[in-house]
Amino acid sequence: MRSLYHLDKYKIPFFRDMGDENNGVFRLKLNDSFLEFTVIATSCYGWDHVSVSTEKRYPNWNEMQQIKDLFFEAHEIAMQLHSSPSENDNIHQYCLHIWRPHEIAIPVPPPISIGGKEWRKFWRAFLN
């Protein structure tokens, strides 16, 4: 996760604590959205974690991507993790999460499976 100091203007106190370089609570607006987002960022137990919620609905894909770009370095791969219902205990009704482990690389599919030039070339050939 990138240093969170660049987001200090959005930081709000959490039990009188303003957080630090790796942890904090933020309230911000994103491009093309009228909603206010509450973001809780932590880096502990071997994981970077960003919790994203709004009062009205779940964040959409583009909003989650903007949050990912704000809180993680461009080269860092992070994921939304869908845990089992027995392990999921969201405090907020409309909350999604982004995770990145510290010690291991997140496995990713081959580039042709996730987009890019090879993917477009494959589908153009397939559709013609």
Structure description:
The protein has 128 residues and is an alpha+beta fold. The termini are far apart. It has helices at 61-71, 111-114, 117-127; strands at 11-12, 24-29, 36-44, 47-53, 95-101. Helix content is 20%, strand content 24%. It has a 5-stranded antiparallel sheet, with helices on one face. It has one domain (4-127): Streptococcus thermophilus LMG 18311 protein like. The chain is built from 3 helices and 5 strands, in the order ββββαβαα. The chain is globular.
Total strand segments: 5
Largest sheet, in brief, is: 5 strands, antiparallel
Q: Taking all residues together, what is the mean pLDDT? A: 88
Assigned CATH class: Alpha Beta
How does the overall form come out from the CA principal axes?
A: globular
Radius of gyration: 17 Å
Would you identify the regions where 5 or more consecutive residues have pLDDT less than 50?
Answer: none
Strand order within the widest beta sheet: 1-2-3-4-5
Total of DSSP H or I helical runs spanning 4+ residues? 3
Instruction: Output the helix-strand order.
Output: EEEEHEHH
